[in-house]
Specification:
Distance between the termini: 12 Å
Number of strands: 0
Number of helices: 3
Oligomer: single chain
Structural class: mainly alpha
Strand content: under 5%
Number of domains: 1
Helix content: over 70%
Length: 88
């Protein structure tokens, strides 16, 4: 099996996870998030009350930065575990 470069894998995971949250932040800014969540809950046959708060640039920035960093750490750890498992 292939050896994973931990830094590259971490970067890909971080950009992917951060990118998803960037898209979510844009949906909130456009006012489309409530409809998307309502659809997802309906499609999963789940009903729960929720409210969509107004867009907050500071919160959106924190969300994207933190999830990108967490994705980076998870990707790095995944590559290390993967490479160690391949040696065994």
């Amino acid at each position: 099996m292939a050896h994973l470069n931990p830094r590259t894998t971490a970067l890909v995971f971080g950009v992917f996870v951060g990118g998803l949250h960037l898209v979510w932040s844009v949906l909130v800014a456009l006012g489309w998030s409530a409809a998307l969540v309502s659809f997802a809950l309906w499609a999963h046959m789940v009903s729960m009350p929720f409210t969509a708060e107004p867009f907050d640039l500071a919160a959106a920035t924190a969300l994207v930065v933190v999830t990108t960093l967490v994705g980076y750490v998870v990707g790095y750890a995944f590559a290390l575990v993967w490479n160690r498992a391949q040696r065994a």
